[in-house]
């Protein structure tokens, strides 16, 4: 069911307890959009909180309040570590009555599945994705109503009320308009301005990709006027530990040319991933190889579960991603292969890439800088 921005605003106005969420492996737009809207709703006196499936990357901790976001994976890690420690302690002192009574010990012994604390809400708002990529948030939040706001052309949401603007460079660009339409003033709320700016900046490759429009720049200008310091945000997002740079160097040794040099890929299977700690951003290094129309990165962090990132100069990679249950934009898309041996997943992907390159005549697609996330 399609929703207008006006109707979305109305739903937000009517609700009091609101949970904001976004996709797994949250990027700058996912975190910036959810937190930006949270700050706005809180300024209206509403109870608004962000809950995400995965952890917010350390670089995004530059955003005020990012550490306090509920991150289910993080909660799970803490709970499991506590249970493990308690179990160790109980083993070390089996006679200890205290350990016997400790519920964490029992949980550890029985290997009970950890379950996140549920939350009741009037409204759940899903941002920067459709509902299928929010992980356990959909079970944790008991919401009376749900709405979806997104900028992915591949968003096929049929059941929920959904507002999709494929022209928006970032979900944060839609929220910029929504917040203004609801009377929000960025100059009075710096954290809100910083979060929305981060969404705009990260999804446009810092205003370089072809999704950057005059509207995106006007929005960014207003956010700068409200006090956002662009260098502070970009420097915090770019900085990487030395070990991560060395990991990227190792990962780059795996770059291979595909299809007579019309594509380039990095394929990192589970064994290779054990030596490579950090590979975020590698696709941005592959996509700049001269003469290629497509860049792909496939990583198997979890055995038999490979994740794929694709970038192109005009060829529609969202169509390739869609055939494997993923999605995205023309020039930036992704998908995942579940319960599939790495070599099988790689062969499937490569055959789709080959077919797409065979069918693609350079210069006939949406040309421009690869990117557009
Ligand atoms: P990434 O390569 O992870 O930066 O993602 C590129 C674009 O594709 C982003 O807009 C993502 O939201 C989208 N995307 C990545 N993986 C998936 C997926 N499994 N399903 C749908 N969209 C995806
Ligand atoms: Mn995103
Ligand atoms: Mn986005």
Describe this structure as you would to a colleague.
42% of the residues lie in helices and 19% in strands. A six-stranded parallel sheet has the order 3-2-1-4-5-6. Helix 8 packs antiparallel against helix 9. With 373 residues, the chain is of the alpha/beta class. The protein is built from 15 helices and twelve strands. The structure holds adenosine monophosphate (AMP) and manganese (II) ion (2 copies). The site of one manganese (II) ion has 5 residues, from helix 2.
Q: Please state the oligomeric state of the protein chains shown.
A: single chain
Shape from CA axes? Answer: globular
Q: State which percent range the strand residues make up.
A: 15-25%
CA radius of gyration:
22 Å
Largest sheet: 6 strands, parallel
Provide the helix percentage. Answer: 40-55%
End-to-end Cα distance, whole Å, is 25 Å
The molecules bound to the chains, other than polymers, are: adenosine monophosphate, manganese (II) ion
The count of β-strands is 12
Class computed from helices, strands and strand pairing: alpha/beta
């Amino acid at each position: 069911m399609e929703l207008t921005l006006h109707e979305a605003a109305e739903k937000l106005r009517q609700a009091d307890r609101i949970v904001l969420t976004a996709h797994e492996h949250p990027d700058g737009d996912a975190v910036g959009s959810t937190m930006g809207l949270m700050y706005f709703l809180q300024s209206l006196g509403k109870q608004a909180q962000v809950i995400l499936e995965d952890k917010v990357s350390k670089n995004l901790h530059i955003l005020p309040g990012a550490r306090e976001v509920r991150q289910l994976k993080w909660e799970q890690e803490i709970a499991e570590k506590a249970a493990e420690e308690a179990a160790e302690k109980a083993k070390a002192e089996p006679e200890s009555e205290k350990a016997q009574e400790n519920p964490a010990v029992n949980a550890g012994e029985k290997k009970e599945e950890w379950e996140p604390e549920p939350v009741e809400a009037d409204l759940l708002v899903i941002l920067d994705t459709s509902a299928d990529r929010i992980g356990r948030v959909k079970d944790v939040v008991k919401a009376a109503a749900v709405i979806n706001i997104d900028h992915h052309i591949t968003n096929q949401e049929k059941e929920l009320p959904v507002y999709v603007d494929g022209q928006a460079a970032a979900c944060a660009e839609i929220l910029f308009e929504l917040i203004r339409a609801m009377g929000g003033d960025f100059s009075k709320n710096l954290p809100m301005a910083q979060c929305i700016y981060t969404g705009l900046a990260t999804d446009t490759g810092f205003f370089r990709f072809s999704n950057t429009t005059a509207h995106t720049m006007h929005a960014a200008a207003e956010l700068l006027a409200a006090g956002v310091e662009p260098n502070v945000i970009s420097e915090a997002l770019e900085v990487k530990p030395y070990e991560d740079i060395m990991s990227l160097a190792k990962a780059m040794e795996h770059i291979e040319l595909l299809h007579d040099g019309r594509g380039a890929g990095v394929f990192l299977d589970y064994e290779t991933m054990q030596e490579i700690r950090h590979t975020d951003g590698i696709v941005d290094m592959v996509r700049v190889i001269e003469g290629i129309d497509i860049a792909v990165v496939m990583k198997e962090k979890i055995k038999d579960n490979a994740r794929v990132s694709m970038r192109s100069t005009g060829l529609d990679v969202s169509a390739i991603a869609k055939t494997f249950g993923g999605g995205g934009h023309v020039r930036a898309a992704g998908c995942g292969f579940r319960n599939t041996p790495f070599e099988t997943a790689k062969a499937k992907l490569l055959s789709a890439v080959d077919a797409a390159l065979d069918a693609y005549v350079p210069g006939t697609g949406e040309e421009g800088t690869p990117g557009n996330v």
